[in-house]
Amino acid sequence: MSKKVILFFPSPLPYERNWHGVPLALLAISRYLVNENYDIKIYTRYLQKNYERKLLKSGKNAICLGISAMTGHQIYDGLRLAKKFKKKYPKVPIVWGGWHPSILPLETIKDHRVDIVVKGQGDITFTELVHALESKSDLKNVKGIVFKKGKKIIATPDRRPVDLTTVPPLPYHLVDVSQCTIPTEYGLRTAPYISSYGCPHRCAFCVEEIVNKRSWKAVPAEKVLNEWEGLYRNYGADSIAVYDSNFFVDENRVREICEGLIHRNLPIKFGNANGRAGQLSRYKPETWELMEKAGCTMILTGAESGDQKSLDFISKDMNVEEIVKFTELCHKHNIKILYSFLVGLPWSKDPQENDEFVATEYRSTLSLIDRLLKICNRNRYTYYVFLPYPGAALYNRAVGLGLEAPKSFEDWTNYLMSPENAFKETIRQQWISPHDARLTAMLTQYIFGIMDRDTYTMLYPRLKNPISRAAFTSGYYIALAMVTVRWKLKFFDFPLDYWLFSLVHRYGGIL
Fold first, then answer.
1. Into which CATH architecture does domain 4-155 fall?
2. Regarding the domain delimited by 181-386, which CATH topology (the fold level of the hierarchy) does it fall under?
3. What value does the mean pLDDT of the chain take?
4. C-alpha to C-alpha distance for 118 and 406, rounded to whole angstroms
């Protein structure tokens, strides 16, 4: 009997862009199966030409089709492909997993293009599911799934978090890694990696409590080092982008990884590692020294707001001064910071109270950023409009204040407002005006993006044509002059320059 399993990673964007990345979620659910000699086929837009035709052709005798999706366009692209697949292979089960199906499994399973939902971490669950489908055994014995049996929907008990000390390494050989490594601020051939699942903290906007039960499970330091060395020696990666929800939970583990990189003399850097400013500001001085020496070059942190009332409202368990101290430490040790801020929290039903709260959020956050820029001018700031996710603590409050959430799996396709379409998309919550939402997109994508000088260094190598390089260089420095003046004056109206930038960003094929 065929041991073929087909996996699809839907496009996260509603238009073509020169974006690449390893579909880590699909590799994670393949790590056991590939060692059992299953024929794993992974398809996605950026890895194969005519990927859709090839996927549909390979469906014959497949055990199942697996699709991983986050909220937004990935649902649309996944459903579009699932419709065609089901029409051609009506008896092959279509299995959905990923963040969104894990958050809303019962809503997801009701769609006719969904046969089974894997909840939470799929490394072991999907493996057992494939075994059950192959042997045609009862799916009730597989923990962590929701499935249809006739007209009945059956949910099995949740599975305990995966013990990452025992799992096999990610099978990177299933994809063409050369197409997935990209230039970043910290390397020319950066490969993505996940070293832990979950986060133990209680941020009120986060759905970790649903997906990972607020637990934190990590790959041991020695195993991380072996896999990073494999990415360097086997695929020529010169840097690692760490996509953990919280890489820095265990200071001792961070020290062990850094000491191992130094001891092995591995010429790689790592960045994008997510950590809490409060916790990192309390790290020992020798840990910071090890991080710098080992090649930690960029940390992602959820700063969220410069307004302490907002930080308390979202249960961030952090104060503004910890953000400042963290920034000083990173600057001292030559580590870049990628800050994430949010605005538009569900504060009140009273429009005037909301307007005043949003205005306070903006003033406090922009003031904080000015303060942080004086410490270091090479960091990156991102700003997002808050949208509540089901399962997060703030979701029920948002619904109580009038949020009209989507009612079906397909409706979640357009729930998120992307900065690329900020001029024409509808804002899906009433705690922030369209004007302020557009301002937020303008700040994160245009003002802060251009002000970060590493943007030029990172994007320039992606252009091969001398004319394109010359046009990009002149355009970048014109935009830099304009955003510098806008930021200094805090003048963000009449955004014609941002509109032109958005067109280039969307259709220029650079980002």
1. 3-Layer(aba) Sandwich (3.40)
2. TIM Barrel (3.20.20)
3. 91
4. 21
